[in-house]
Protein 1
Amino acid sequence: MTDTDLLRDRGLRVTAPRLAVLDALEGHAHLDADEVLGRVRTTLPGVSVQAVYDVLHALTGAGILRRIEPAGHPARYERRVGDNHHHVVCRGCGAVDDVDCVVGHAPCLVPSSTSGFAVEAAEVTFWGLCPACRQAG
Amino acid sequence: MTDTDLLRDRGLRVTAPRLAVLDALEGHAHLDADEVLGRVRTTLPGVSVQAVYDVLHALTGAGILRRIEPAGHPARYERRVGDNHHHVVCRGCGAVDDVDCVVGHAPCLVPSSTSGFAVEAAEVTFWGLCPACRQAG
DNA sequence: GTCGTCACTTGAATGATTCCAGAAAACATG
DNA sequence: CATGTTTTCTGGAATCATTCAAGTGACGAC
């Protein structure tokens, strides 16, 4: 399915900024809003900061994008949705990479006592050092 | 061990603001910086905002406090450290509660492929609705 | 094509957190 | 207990990602 069809399918209007954001995240996952803006402006120089934030919100709300918010770092976005994968975040530079869940259906992701909370989702974040930051010491 | 001994034990100086912060978090886990400030000022009215941030950083760095940063909410702090428990966060009001890991040693918390990252820790966050927000609809 | 709705632009505001310089207090020593 | 050094605390301003507000412009149903 083309990005155009994807947007129509979710009931979203097809606009140049939206296509540009999707294109920027194609092959470059885990970009933050500023990086997305930079990439979008290479093809659409006039796009405003808020347009990018609006688009990212709209696409996230429509389930086309997934938003990752590692503690202490700006939010990042990726196109890979719906497969319940997780992330490693580098303590040094904030780089993010994907981690697939080892076990098919995560057994420890069903909490024991939920204190009356209605739990909808579980999110796993691994923290460590990326290869580059390991070398840098 | 008293809080005074605890601070000395970690090589930290014993000051009134530090004791007050520890006291504020005793029995009131998951407070954010502003809430800690409010509680501290009931006993030490003159304490500054930055003093509280400095203290929270110092105690977190010394391993006395644990910092929780749920996406979209200010950071929260708790005294319970070193037992690898996790948290439920309310999508409505941001309330946080503790969740003990179901399985003794979490099986899915060892990532399969780590892309060269040196993984140090795994963090699990459950998202849902607290009892109060469930009733509010 | 026309029109209503939704998206985008410009500009300013917010809120948690941090930076800076100077004053004050805590620990180690004589 | 007096002194000096180091660390902490105060007060004010600054930062950064993100959001709000109001007006202009473009998509797409009819």
Protein 2
Amino acid sequence: MGRRGDHSIEQIKEMALDAAETIVREQGYHHLSTRKIAKAIGYTVGTLYMVFENLDELILYLNGRTLDQLYEVIEPLVQRQDDPKRCIHEMTHTYLNFALQNRSRWNMVFEHRLPEGKDVPGWYPNKISELFNLLETPLRQLHQGESEQEIALKARVLWSSVHGICALALTHSLQHLGFDSPEPMIESLLKQNL
Amino acid sequence: MGRRGDHSIEQIKEMALDAAETIVREQGYHHLSTRKIAKAIGYTVGTLYMVFENLDELILYLNGRTLDQLYEVIEPLVQRQDDPKRCIHEMTHTYLNFALQNRSRWNMVFEHRLPEGKDVPGWYPNKISELFNLLETPLRQLHQGESEQEIALKARVLWSSVHGICALALTHSLQHLGFDSPEPMIESLLKQNL
DNA sequence: CTATTAATTAAACAGTGTTTAATTTAATTC
DNA sequence: GAATTAAATTAAACACTGTTTAATTAATAG
């Protein structure tokens, strides 16, 4: 059985994801297309469909990468076990910075939707869960004696709140009366909650 | 100068928005198209472009309607001046219910993005601001003596947090370990903040 | 060296938003 | 009332999109 040895499937997969990442970074989510990706890696769309089920799956993997990168910049902050409040402040600040500096890709993570009916493979919400879990360590220190369920809930509520502030602040929604910057909003949130 | 008297521009505008609303409600945001709208109102795409600048503008008006409807179900709750905490609980609960019962349209409000560079007309963030403002009345009662700036900030932080919880809970992000339901998360948020 | 089999492509399909030129239709002017 | 004029409306085109198909290329197996 003859296969063309230029690149392995794994290689093409990575090349495609790299190319897609660049396109999204430079042109934004809505300018991403299969033909652009294919052209960038020197193949045709057909090859893309050998490696990915469809564009949605490709984007899912790309978003997985973004979540991984976010994890990698936030995870090290958990080590600072001395001051949990400071730790949480740094985590939210890092999250915000990541969102700002990787705006297109971060947007894509939350804008992209699978067609009705299709739902995401298990590893995807797992990545998000792991991100949520990072908040549990400092929160456990802060609310000692509370159940793990309660800690997990608090972590998810806090992350979601920070996310909500970022999401609204970074889009059209809040450019009004000096509330366009998310930082003071997050400060206000943390002051109330910690 | 001769115009065809079947419908006025205003009428066509409304018919188009009605039709679009139905399509989004029944088929979802991503199945909305100019040709479908045109067909539904018995006209051609060209007519649509006489009345709207483009599809983005049409969607913007449609989202404006959705925001108006949300305002109309939340505004009456502000009247209950006796118990601000209860008032806020009811407002968030109503928000959540609205999001659940008008999922496609509510999604569209937050999924739709104008092309880079183009930004929304002033009346749009105004509508969002008015929605935020509804929270200020009960919050003012709750935090007496604080500056108007502080109240406004708190209102925006609270709304954004509730939105973040809704947004993550209603999409692929949290279907995990019993956190798929936003209600207990919002309860937790309010317990901490009020 | 031929047959097989898989990788790759070119082309097609059905859809999209938008623009253009052509065509109706109605009101205005002579 | 008929000819003119201008606006409303359409049909068709353009340049895209994601995806599928059949054809082609290249490498391996016998």
